[in-house]
Structures are given as C-alpha cells and as structure tokens.
Request: fold
Amino acid sequence: MRTLRTVGTAMTIAALLTAIAASPSDAATRRYAPLHAYDGLWSVSIQTEAGPCDPSYRYPARIVGGQVLQADNDFNYQISGVVVSNGAIAVTVSRGGQSATGYGRLRGTVGGGRWSAGGNTCYGTWSAMRRTGRSAMQRAAN
Amino acid sequence: MPDARFWADSTADFNRALPSQPGPWLILSTGGSDGAFGAGLLNGLSAAGNRPAYSVVTGVSTGALMAPFAFAGSRYDDALKAAYTQISAADVFEVGSTGESFVDSWPLKDLIAKQITPALLADIAAEHRRGRRLFVITTDLDAQRSVVWNMGAIAVHAVDDGGDAAPNLFRSVLLASGSVPGAFPPVLIAVESNGKKFSEMHADGGVGGQFFVAPLGLTASTSGYRIPATQLYIVVNSGLQSDFAVVQPTTPSILTQAVGMAVNVDLRLMLDRIYVAAKNSGTGFNVAAIPASFSAPSRGPFDPQYMGALFSVGFDQGRSATPFASAPPPYPGQPPSTQSNDSDQPQANDPKPGADR
Reply:
C-alpha cells in the first residue's frame, strides 16, 4: 500500500503559502517576524490520523533564511519547504516512495498543522519544536 | 558509587548483591515495542491478585524500561500501561543518521527522564532497603562484557546524596540498556577509576543475552550452582516462533529480520538452559511469551494500535488461570521425550521450507 508518489512539490508549496499568507485576518492583526526568526534546528513529529501510512514519525529539519532543509546527510528521506515571515510554513517529506505535504504555522519555538499524502490517501497532524544542535559524541579520557 | 554495578560474569559479586532470603524472581526480556505484552501481563497479574513482591527483578532492553515500574509494584501499573500504550515512534526516536546509528534516540531519553520521577526513585530505594533487588543489564562495548547495574543501590544514592548524579545515572543506564547498536546511539557513561576519568560506551543489554537470571558460569549445564529463588517468572516480550515477512530491500528491513531470527534462536537456547538450571536448583520454572495466535498487524515501528492490542493479549493472559507455562514451548517436531534418539528423523508436522508462502 505504500505507493504514494511525490506530488508537484513546488506547486503545492506555492499554492499553500499563497492561501495561508493571504489570509486577511492574518494581514490585519499580526506583526510579522523577521524571516530569520525561525532559523535553526527543528524536530517535526508527524501523526497519522487515517490511512495506511506509518502511524508516526519524527524528522529533524533545519531552517535557513526561510528555506526548510534536510538537517542531516541521511539519504533515506528528503525534506524541503519554505516558511514566510508570519510563520506560515509548507513542507514536503519524501521517504521510501512515500511523500507527504504539510502546512501550518510556526510560533516562537513550536509549531503545528496538518499534512496529507497522495490524494488524501493518508492524512494527519504535525507538530514541531525548536531544538538545540546535537553535539558529536566525544569520549572523555584523561 | 562503588555498589552501583558489577560484571555480569562475576559470580562472587552476583552472590553478594542478592537478597539474603530466597524469593520469587521476575525476569523481563528484550523485545522493543513488544514489551507491551509484558506490561499487559503484569497488569493482568495485578488484576487477578496474582502478583507477588518479587524479591529480584531483572530487565534487559525493553525489559529494563519496564523493570522499575514492575519492581515498584502494582501502584505503578497505570504508568507501566501508559509507557507501552500511549507512545508512538515519535516519542522514541528521530529519523536521521547520527554517525553512530541509523536514528537518534533523544526522544526516548526525554521520555525516560519524564518517567523516572523522584517519587519512583524513592519507592525503588525503599524497596532496596527492604532487601529486594532491581538489576538492569547493559553491554560495555569496550570490554565486550555485560554489566549488571544495581538500580536499587543507585536509587538509594539518588535519595541520600541529592543532586543530579544518581538520577542521571539511573536514567542513562535505562537508555543504554535499550539502545540497540547500530539502530540507536550507544550511551556514554562517565566513570572514574584509580583517579582517572573515562567515558564507557554502553549499549543494549540484549547483546549479551535476551534476559538475565544469573552469571552464565552459574547456570551452565555443568554447574552445580543452585539458583537461590523459590520461583523464576520469565516474561518473554516476543513470540517464540518464526515470523514470515517479505523483507524489503533496505538495510533496516534486512537487519530487522536477520537480527530478529538470531534473537529468537538465542531466546530458545537461553530458556532451555535456564529450565535445566531451575530444575537442578529445585526452583519453579515459569515462562510467558506472546502466543503464536497473536497476529495483529503493525503499521510501522511503535504502532500504538499494535501495542494496544498486544497489551490486551498480555493482560488477558496475566489475568487467566494459567498465565505462565511450566516448561519452554517445544520446538516444531520435537519428540515428546528428550531421551529419545529419534530427533534426527523428520517428523510428520515438521514445517517445510517455503510452507508459509
């Protein structure tokens, strides 16, 4: 059942961001943060509400200047996306032939939203938390 | 903390660490998310009023993670249940190679920190002072030897000494015991010996055996040692039969299936060995494992639905009239008498290669 294919990532992200960022209530009431306010390491927890996808997973992601990037060199998955100054975010995660697109919002050190994959074959929620960087394992001996 | 640990092959240290009086021992095996079975079984035993205060509790890997709750008693049954039914993969690991492992286990580290509360440590310390013992096993990769951690003694230090050192050690030991090499990063534990500081690299206790009863030198078939337990209750957080699965051509899938088979073989051999040792000791042998009839599908690692179903199966078994078997389950095609010389002859019910397909 895990035959979900990558959708038009760039188009989806653009469409989602347009929809989120153009919200009149947002425009009227929110003071937008600098684009670099979200820069750093994040951890994203993905929960499946329905569909034959894995029930949950957690991925690291790095944000640099509004671009959501893979945070490590693991070739088993890819992550990409964008975040704009009001925190609206759209991200695509691809792994093992599966691909899911999420959208939502970051606020301060946390975030959350919804995701779906392959024509709503699977869908659910995601949440994110800002992390400090992982230091390399070092062995003390003296 | 000189009393915090000893080598698992040290018979003298083991005997020194034991309670002064024989009693029932609870042995909790490896098994990953299948630890939901053991959590359910213990809850079921409580519900049936059939759960003694085990004088010794030992835990390896997932067995180590449930051991503190099991040791502290039935009042922690809800916490034990939550630990295996209200978590998912996102609470255990984060995808992405760390350089030491396929995934990062910082979520599990955080989870353990929440579970091992000061109140739980105080309760464990109190039981240790009453003479009961809680042992958790890790693997010292440098030494290629298993280590037994006297968790009750560490809990006593946590209560008496104050500060973070003892609680952090307690939690690090649990994390290490559940850190399958290659999958999860090993855990560095700072030690000091002869005035020198050193960080030992510890990994999953299952590397040295799927459960721990006593040093192997004591339970060897040629040993005259008598296990000082009235009863052994071994909870195997795994099925004891082969599980057919079409293996995906990925490194994790191949390793999972291959290691799973090795673990299964190890479990069976260890059960056989301990059965004989218990018999020679006049100690009751009791074993519970996931029944072969359990077939709930798992949609991925640490699937909450799968773990919930497994917890229920364990609970029902624990509450039943016969939660434990008195002998290891027979191998397929095993003759009824172990004295028979016909074991090399094919049996009518021997599984045929490819039969599962």
Remarks:
- DSSP finds two helices and eight strands in chain A.
- The interface with chain B takes residues 43, 45-47, 52-60, 71-74, 76-77, 95-96, 134, 136-137, 139-142 of chain A (CB under 8 Å).
- Residues 40 and 136 of chain A are 17 Å apart (CA to CA).
